[in-house]
Please model this.
Amino acid sequence: MDKLLLVGGSSGIGKSILELLIDKYEVHNLSRSQPDLSHDHLTHHQVDVLEDEIPEIDGINKIIYCPGTINLKPINSLKEEDFLNDFKVNVLGAVRVIKKYVRDLKRNGNGSILLFSTVAVQQGMPFHSSVAVAKAGVEGLTRSLAAELAPQIRVNCIAPSMTNTPLAKGILKDEKAIERIEDRHPLKRIMEAEDIAKMAVFLISEDARTMTGQVIGIDSGLSTLKP
Ligand SMILES: NC(=O)c1ccc[n+]([C@@H]2O[C@H](COP(=O)([O-])OP(=O)(O)OC[C@H]3O[C@@H](n4cnc5c(N)ncnc54)[C@H](OP(=O)(O)O)[C@@H]3O)[C@@H](O)[C@H]2O)c1
Model:
């Protein structure tokens, strides 16, 4: 059975990924709080990936890294610390985790890594400069590592638009806000965690064995269409 290292199975998209694939994978989850799921295939490690030592786990051949930020402010309100923090959570945390297990992924076969960007890299949006800088780093990391680690390990990325998760609850705060955001999308929908999780499960599976270095937009058409 494939062995997945999931960072962020306690909330949002990571939680939905965990629910979708737990019957088929052995999963080691890293997050600060415990996922509210119990299953023979699931082992939880209480870890802050920015502060704590990343645990030794044998046999890992897939990694999904979910931690991210939505820190939206005009440029004059963004401090250097905001940029550094967004970079740490989105990029350096992923780098720490990948460095820890990359030799295992090479050795164990069917290696696959999945990272998360945002629609705001492809499509310029006001107040997104800090998160867009960090996520542009994630997209660069995806392509660089895809080149460096081929043919043993595939590396892909999903770039969602607004998705209904705890991370977005400050923005999706009431019906009016939800309607306004839905209306900006050509398909008039915001994403649910499961919409993103289904693509994540596909991308790490052998069904996607010819895909690497890709950034897949799941955004109800926002990044590419002008309605
Ligand atoms: N939701 C959206 O609208 C949206 C839009 C575009 C892109 N994205 C991207 O999609 C990804 C998933 O987002 P989401 O909405 O599912 O986020 P979420 O609900 O905040 O979930 C993030 C997960 O990462 C874990 N995590 C965060 N910091 C951590 C740390 N230092 N150490 C260990 N675990 C940590 C959290 O667990 P603990 O808190 O228990 O540690 C949680 O399980 C992110 O990269 C985000 O930037 C989301």
Strands lie at 3-7, 26-31, 42-46, 62-65, 111-116, 153-160, 163-164, 191-192, 215-218. The chain has a mean pLDDT of 97. The first strand starts at residue 3 and ends at 7. The radius of gyration is 17 Å.
